[in-house]
Amino acid sequence: MVLWAHRLFEYLVLITGIYNVKAWTYHYNIDINMDWTTARQWCQKHFTDMVAIQNQAEVEYLNQVLPFNQAYYWIGIRKIDDYWTWVGTKKRLDPEAANWAENEPNNKGSGQDCVEIYIKRRKETAKWNDERCSKKKATVCYLASCSKESCSEHAECVETIGNYRCQCHLGFMGPRCEEVVQCWPIENPQQGFVNCDGVFGAFHFNSSCQFRCVTGFKLEGSQRLRCLASGHWDYTLPVCQAVQCLPIIDAPGGWSMNCTHPLSINSFNSSCEFKCEEGFELKGSSTTWCDQTGQWTHKPPTCTVVTCNGILAPAKGHLTCADPLGKYSFRSTCNISCVEGHKLRGKATLSCLSDGNWSAPTPDCEVVKCDPLKPIPHGSLQCYDPVEKFAYGSTCWLKCGFGFVHNGTNSTHCTEQGNWSPIPPVCQAIQCSPLSDAPSYGSMTCTHPLSTNSYNSSCEFKCEEGFVLKGADSTQCDHTGHWTHSTPICTAVACDPLVTPAKSHLTCADPLEKFSFRSSCKATCEEGYTLRGETTLTCLSDGNWSAPTPACEVIRCDAPESVQHGSVHCQDHLGEFSYGSLCWLECGAGFTLKGSNSTYCTSQGKWSQEFPCESKDLGDAMPCGGPPSGSGKVP
Question: What integer is the mean pLDDT of 541-556?
Answer without folding.
Answer: 89
